[in-house]
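To illustrate the input format used throughout this study, we show a single complete record. The first block contains the structure-token representation of the backbone; no residue identities are included at this stage. The design step must infer an amino acid for every position from geometry alone.
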């Protein structure tokens, strides 16, 4: 037992081969850039100024982004958690799960409820797991649906525990036609019964969707309700303990800014402090279900590591999508370019916060360490709620949610979920998720890293979370436009990573944030390089050196390099091509 308790909860190792390739590539690429810029500078006066200047600007932008990106490739590492080495269930900390939905017309109710059910099914002590659904639409449709999801979960979760079902999203589980967790007769009988129950659940949701208005409300009072039976006290019919499920619809008024997802998350942070007050928080998008119930225990392998824990703000898992295949992802909706960078960031002080699929330490959001050091006014930071401040000061503050019906507690929670509670406080500025930019995740991660916190990237072989990604060009353009607007809010502000970051975190980490923040600059270079060379070719204006010039081979190398996958991706690319050749000889 002593040997087991002394074993590390996680391990990491550097990717030495990839590091060597990345550094060698950086050297060759950097040397190739020198003749390119020499040619541009010396020939800019020999031809019409405008086209050469435009091409020069586009090449400067691409080179700047390339230089910034080298920091994330300098020291990639991988981490391995060992959940079996965790202490017993009675010693594990509690976890709050936050799920956000905003519009039942755009986010199908069945999909949202499957995410809720999969979160309730996480492999974690049920008395230490609490799931909160934020309904920003204040929709009666979602409110009725979550009650039906609770009824079905009382059957589904015991079934998953009994047969150790790994995929605890019922929709995904029953879509796997070859799924067979056991050959026993009892399993097949129970599976047929639970499948019938799920079909009834689906039909019930369909009737609710057909009969209840799905209008999105922009003007409604706060509503917080613990979803439970009047007498069951969190137990199902077999007296099995179930996690806590809470529905939250924050107050919205047309005259008050609601601060999008960050505002909804901060309401959940405050409300959950009054009900469960868990030290760790899992944030999920409503279309991102739990594909592996072990993710909570994996995250705790890092959060409970005595070497990491004091400074560890969050554990980030990659976003994977079930509706996209690798060979048909023409828009890179899987964001593979990003997760490779996150692996490199893990070799610095940690990956950037990525919106969903992360386990956050509540204390990091509160910033209490900095507040105590500066003798700050807790009322000024956290607002007028004495109960909230009590929960912040006392980590062992454990309110009894069974007393939630008490009038005093209801009034306190209604205050915390009101639309004007943030006024004259530090919520969204120095406390909670930050409001400054539309991309609240990137900006919150930036401020946490600048405040001395670190993060960890964990990518197990089985994706812990699977979601649904936009696949049409129109949807992708809308999504990326929103992201780019938010990134430029950061890049062009006083929080620009190249200005705000270097004095507060390592320069290498600042470079990584700078690459992400200035990512929208790519469009300028792409438009210039797509139009100007072709127009100059028609007008007979030379933009590139002749073959007899040494700099020509620099251009040739850079063009070939950018036209083909990077060396680190060659084995995977070749493997995919070989498989395609087998299918289409």
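Output of the design step:
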């Amino acid at each position: 037992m002593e040997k087991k308790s002394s074993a590390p909860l996680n391990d990491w190792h550097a990717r030495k081969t990839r590091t060597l390739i990345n550094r060698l590539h950086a050297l060759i690429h950097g040397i190739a850039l020198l003749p390119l810029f020499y040619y541009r500078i010396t020939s800019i006066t020999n031809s019409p100024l405008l086209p050469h200047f435009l091409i020069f600007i586009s090449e400067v932008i691409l080179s700047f982004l390339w230089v910034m990106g080298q920091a994330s490739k300098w020291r990639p590492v991988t981490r391995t958690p060992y959940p079996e080495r965790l202490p017993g269930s009675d010693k594990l900390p509690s976890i709050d799960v936050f799920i956000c939905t905003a519009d039942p017309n755009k986010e199908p109710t069945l999909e949202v409820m499957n995410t809720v059910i999969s979160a309730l099914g996480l492999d974690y002590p049920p008395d230490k797991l609490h799931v909160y659904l934020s309904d920003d639409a204040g929709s009666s449709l979602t409110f009725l649906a979550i009650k039906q999801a609770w009824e079905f979960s009382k059957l589904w979760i015991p079934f998953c525990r009994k047969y150790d079902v790994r995929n605890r999203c019922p929709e995904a589980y029953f879509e796997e036609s070859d799924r067979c967790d056991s050959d026993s007769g009892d399993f097949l009988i129970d599976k047929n019964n639970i499948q019938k129950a799920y079909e009834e659940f689906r039909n019930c949701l369909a009737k609710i969707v057909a009969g209840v208005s799905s209008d999105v409300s922009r003007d409604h009072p706060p509503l917080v309700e613990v979803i439970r039976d009047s007498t069951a006290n969190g137990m199902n019919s077999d007296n099995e303990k179930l996690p806590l499920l809470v529905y939250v619809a924050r107050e919205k008024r047309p005259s008050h800014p609601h601060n999008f997802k960050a505002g909804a998350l901060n309401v959940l942070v405050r409300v959950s402090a009054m009900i469960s007050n868990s030290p760790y928080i899992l944030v999920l998008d409503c279309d991102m279900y739990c594909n592996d119930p072990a993710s909570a225990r994996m995250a705790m392998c890092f959060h409970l590591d005595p070497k990491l824990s004091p400074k560890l703000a969050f554990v980030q898992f990659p976003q994977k999508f079930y509706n996209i295949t690798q060979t048909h992802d023409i828009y890179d909706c899987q964001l593979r370019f990003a997760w490779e960078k996150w692996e490199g960031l893990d070799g610095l002080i940690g990956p950037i916060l990525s919106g969903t699929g992360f386990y956050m330490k509540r204390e990091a959001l509160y910033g209490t360490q900095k507040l105590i050091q500066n003798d700050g006014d807790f009322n000024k930071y956290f607002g007028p709620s004495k109960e909230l401040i009590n929960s912040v000061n006392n980590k062992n503050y454990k309110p009894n949610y069974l007393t939630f019906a008490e009038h005093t507690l209801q009034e306190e929670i209604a205050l915390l979920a009101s639309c004007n509670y943030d006024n004259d406080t530090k919520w969204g500025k120095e406390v909670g998720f930050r409001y400054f930019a539309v991309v609240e995740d990137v900006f919150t991660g930036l401020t946490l890293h600048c405040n001395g916190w670190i993060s960890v990237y964990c990518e197990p072989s089985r994706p812990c979370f699977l979601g649904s990604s936009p696949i049409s060009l129109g949807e992708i353009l809308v999504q990326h436009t929103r992201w780019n607007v938010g990134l430029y809010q950061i890049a062009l502000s006083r929080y620009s990573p190249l200005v705000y970051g270097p004095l507060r975190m390592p320069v290498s980490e600042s470079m990584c944030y700078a690459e992400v923040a200035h990512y929208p600059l790519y469009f300028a270079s792409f438009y210039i390089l797509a139009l100007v060379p072709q127009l100059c070719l028609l007008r007979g204006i030379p933009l590139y050196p002749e073959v007899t010039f040494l700099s020509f081979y620099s251009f040739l190398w850079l063009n070939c390099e950018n036209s083909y996958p990077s060396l680190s991706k060659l084995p995977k690319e070749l493997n995919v091509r070989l498989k395609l050749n087998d299918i289409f000889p």
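Structural context for interpreting the output: The CA atoms of residues 259 and 435 lie 6 Å apart. The longest strand covers residues 95-101.
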